[in-house]
Write a structure and sequence with these properties.
Length: about 425
Amino acid sequence: MRRAPRPGDLAFAVAGLPVALLCGAYALVVLYAGALLSLTVLGLPFVALGLCGARALGAFHRRLAGRLLGAHVERHEPPARAGGPLAWCRAVLTDPVGWRSLLYLLLRLPLGVLAFAAAVALPLGGGWLAGFPLWVRLLEPGDRPGGWLDVTAVLLGLALLAAVSPTIHAWSGVERRLARTLLGPARSQGRLRQLETARSTLLAENTDRLRRLERDLHDGTQAQLVALAITLSLADDALEPGTPDAAPDVTRLRTLVDRARRQTDDTIADLRSLTRGLHPVALDGGLGEALPGLTATSPVPVTLCLDLGARPDPAIERTVYFCAAELLTNIAKHSAATAVSLELTATADRVRLSVHDDGRGGVDLLDDGADSTGGGPRGQDGGSGLAGLRERLAAVDGALRVVSPPGGPTTVTAELPARL
């Protein structure tokens, strides 16, 4: 069933015609006059001013498309500031935003005419054809037998009226895609912005982790070491009795030594817990040695398949290792799976990690980065870290893809470059 066009679609199609005509004429004047003046010193400054105007008109169209069409188009970065007229002219002429906005204004000229025709001319023409027998009889009084022309006109008019709604809806979709393509940031700019955001998030997380580590070392491990030093001092005092002929208190000395041993074990355990997430020792030998040890500790049986043609950078290896550990942990906690297969392929350019389980499925990685599960049972993510994995991968220009229909199976694939 086709969805009816929204009121904003109709308003954009009707009110957008004069805007499209004016802005299209502006773009044509800029190009035509710029070409004529290109042989003079006024050519480049004129085109630069025209591109500034096109950028402003593009921003107006972006807001108009967002308000009437419901198209969310991200804003561009503000233009770079230049120190002088020549630098400003060079910056404007090399700015892709102005040229893309100018192209949008040119394309909007025919699209605006066609959209107005679909919203106004098409229903008027359909209504006139559907009422053709009535108009003929009103204009020509008297008996007039109906014929094949009347039937054809009515059928054609009804067909045109039926095509109004889907035509406007389809044309609005074209307008939305055009606005997102030309008025939004370029793909490279969006990718750069995504990388900057992901790396800022990862840097903030690492800073918080270092602060927690410092606090835990100061408040926990340091206090335990101080207590151990005090215990050893007491043991040293127990070895020196008050009189030369007296023997050391063996019972008290043994108690102090046992206490020192327990305090040492607790301190070592805490240090291991604090340093567990910094750098896995197993990665010293590469992923080929680290992943078998990781999968061997999984409570769910894991079939491991490794194809390591080249060893990635250490940062990439660390990311892949933590991704594999997080995914295996999620599967063990939430998926109710009985078997898991983990495949890793590493070439000189790309690394691909794929984890497949036969669990209940229903994992849904939303576009905004939130984790959710599908309807019914709890999915294997359950809000426990797929968004964090995606941010970790985005920080190294990687991507995460999840295929998990309700009822399973689930396949999570991480792809990232082998070199930074």
